Amino acid sequence: MNSPETIAISGATGFIGSELCAYFVQRGYQVIGFCRNAPARPIKGVEYRTFDLQKKTNANLFKDA
Cys-Cys link to 45, which of 3, 4, 25, 33 (CB 3.0-4.6 A)? Predict the structure, then answer.
């Protein structure tokens, strides 16, 4: 069995980003959502990863994305 394709979405907690996350989860994708802050209402099936472009970021944050 093939594993689902992975998609990374920047701005995952904004209006457009959250809609895209929901869209791709519903279609069976593995979704990695990048955002500055953890969402108040996370979407089931989205793996959220927080980061800030103004701070040093661990390279592993983008692994598998």
Answer: 25
